Structures are given as structure tokens and as C-alpha cells.
Amino acid sequence: MNDLRRVLRFISPYKKEIAFATVFLGLVVFADLSIPRLIQVIIDNGVAEMDMDVILRTSLLMIGASILSATLSIANTFYSVRASRGFEADLREAIFKKVQTFSFGNLDDLNTGQLLTRLTSDLTMVQMIVSMGVRMFIRAPLMFLGSFGIMFATNPNLATVILALLPVTFLLVFFFIRKVRPLFTQVQERLDYLNQVLQENLSGIRVVKSFVRSDYENSRFEKANSELYGTSLKMNQYTSIFFPIVMALMNLGTVAIIYYGGLQVSVGTTSVGQIMAFTNYLFSTMFPVLMISMMAGQISAASASASRIMEVLDAVPEVQDSPEAIQLDEIQGRVVFENVTFSYRDDGGDPVLTDISFIAEPGEKVALLGQTGSGKSSLINLIPRFYDANVGRVTIDGFDVKDIKISKLRSHIGISLQEVILFSGTIRDNIRYGSPDATEEEIIEVAKMAQAHEFITAFPEGYDTLVGQRGVNLSGGQKQRVAIARALLVKPKILILD
Questions:
Q1: CA 478 to centroid of chain Cα atoms
Q2: Which of 31, 56, 266, 472 has its CA 20 to 30 A from that of 373?
Q3: Which of 3.20.20.70, 1.10.760.10, 3.40.50.300, 3.10.129.10 is the CATH number of 335-497?
Q4: C-beta separation of 280 from 39 below 8 A
Q5: What is the pTM of this model?
């Protein structure tokens, strides 16, 4: 619950909208509570006395109250939606910006499927609390207290009948919340895993087809989907039992009011109009309890989602600038490894690199040779500080890479990773991704250096050829050459080709 409170701090910029929504909602409740009272006047003073003047006047007041309620509801919705959607947009942006600060180590801990879930369903779940909460958490108490106040002021004996139903109702609400709260958490976890399976399948669908593993993937997805379905069904079963019981209590209250009120009418201590008004006020009293129950379930789900969101926002980038980090605007490009040992795990797991030392002079071409899994990619990932060495140090021009601002360090390095990632857009857009202001001549020059110009110009659209998802319309070699051209365009002092 503490995580939910922390997430809800993002609503602070929208205090004015919340205030306006609250005022309008209070006026809506006032208008709605006046209608049963007006019905009582029509029945007791109009119908019973056959006074058409009272009926007409009061009916016009009811119409006015209804129109006022509808108008104020529109105003309330306008401001509450502005607040909730603004909150959602700000929180989504905060999560996205946080992910941009993550090091490779953080991204190893949170896979793409998990991050997508937090940016979509988890975020939506929390946003619903703001959207519904602005209306329900304000409307429900006002309706509940207002209805009870009017009933006790009008007929305390009849109001006691409704009061007797509340302990049973609150007991049901407590039971409902206790049962569904852990299920909401499980649903989000199941959805998280389902998204992970789906994301892996879609990104690797060509591998699945190549190895004829569709049946295996179908069974894997079916299992994840079935687990989500089972947990969701169990949660909905409690909901399907709870709400009919509460509705039955409301109907029981209606019968009790009519019966007990009828006895009072027979002795002249109440009126038919009061019974009609109390029947309406019964729903105005019990319906907020239903609303709060629904919100309690949503809060349980939102609390679980908020914890998962805060897991992202609270994550500390494993690689970040030190307070004394320097700019280092110019470098020669001398790279030195001094007794470097590196492990992907901080708890003393088996090192990938052990006591590595070498020097790469400016302008020198250095090839790293070794068996698959020997740590070549791990070694070069230490130069731009995708990871930090556990022991020893990596220096550039005598400066420890940990003492250089990360943005400056990486601006001097051009890198073509082992896994080539191309973005949606044109070939030109992908080449100039790291240098958005590059001229056409510069783009063509690096494309020629990467031996990509020839196949690019062979396309009908040339450099304006749209690259499909992950570069699907390019061969592996073509994608690699585009990636090399992209690395060359930043004019790096250190070029790394993995």
C-alpha cells in the first residue's frame, strides 16, 4: 500500500483539477439527494391532496435537479479525466525515462515482457484508481452520510431498519476484500509471464518456424494463458457471489421498509411518500457500499501494480556517473585493461574474465580471438561501461572509464553489437540514428566505407527504403553493414565491431 501512495504522488500537478472535480461532485450529490425528497412531496402533498399545482411545481423542480445533476456530472468528468489521464501520461513518461537510465545489468534483471507489462496493464490499473477514486471515494461517503442524515432527520425509527443491515454488509465487504486481494496480485503476475511468453514468441517467430516448434510454443502459451484464466476466473467467482448477496440485502431492506413503514402508515406516524423516499434512500445508502467494495478490489490490484511500477522507478542503475566524473571532450583512444576480472553476478559468481591485461594504442587494430563463450563480447562491453569490472580497471588515455561521464565516454565510441538492432523507419534514418544532423554526403560516405552503398542504391527507394520490423527485409549481412555505417557516422575515436 505504501508503494501505491508513492505512485499517487504523481497526481500532485493536478490538484486544481481534483479540487474542481470534488466541488462539482459534491453539488451532484446534493442534487441527487434532493430527488427522493421531492418524490415524497409529490406523493404526500400532491397526489394525496389531489393538488395538481404541487405536482406540477415539484415535477419541474425534479426536472431541474436532474438537469443540474447531469450538467455538473459532465463538468466533474471533464476535470477528473484531465487529472487521471495527466497522471497516467506523467507516470508513463517517468517509467520510460527511468528505463533509459538502466545499464545492461538492470535490463538483464527486468526482461522486455516485464517492462511492457509495467508500462501497459500495471499503469492502466493504477490510472483506474485515480479515475474512479476521484468520483467514488468522494461520492460514496457523501451519498452514504447524506442519505442517512436525511433519513434520521425525517424518521429515525424507519432509518433504524436500514442501519440494521449495515453490519452484515460491512462483514461481506471485509470478506470480499480479504479473498480477492491476493488474487489481484496473482493475476498481474500471470499476465506478466504471459506477456513474456508472447514477446519471446513474436520476436523469435522465425526461429520457431525454422525448428518446427509451433506445437511446443502453442503448449507453452496455452499453459500461461490457462493459468491467467484460472486465477481470473477464481477472482470473478468471488465477485459474482458478493454482488448478488449485497443486492439481495438491498431488496430485503426494501421489503423491511415497506412492511415496517406500512405499519407506521396504518397508525398515522408516517406517510406513503416517506416510504417511497426511504426506498430510494436505501439504494443511495447501500450503493456507495458496493462502490467502495469495487474500489477496494481495484485498490488491491492497483497496490500490486504500484509495487511492480516502483520496482522500476526505485531500481538503481548499476552503472552511473560518479559525482567527480569528468567531461573529457577530446580523446586519443588509448585503451588499457589492467588486471580486469569480471562476473555478471555481484555475489561472487564464476568470473567470465579473469585477470585480463592488454593495451590498444590509438589507430591500432586489435582482434580478439577465442572460443564461443570465452568472454570476447563481455570484454568489449566494459569499454563503453555497459558493465563495470569487478576487479582491476579499464582506462582510456589514462583515465579510468568510471571517472568519465557516461554520455561523453560513449560519444567517443562507435559500436556495432553482435545482435544487430534496426529501428522502424528508412535506411537513412537508421544510419544517422547516432548523428541526427549528419548530411547526405556524410551518410553516403560511411555507407560506402561499410560497403553498404551498393546494395542500398539497388533498392528502388534507395536510402529512403523502409526497414521492416527488426530489419526483416534486409539480409543478415546487409543489416550488419547498416549497423557498421551507423557506428562510423559518429566519427568515433574508438570503433568496436562485435
A1: 37
A2: 472
A3: 3.40.50.300
A4: yes
A5: 0.75
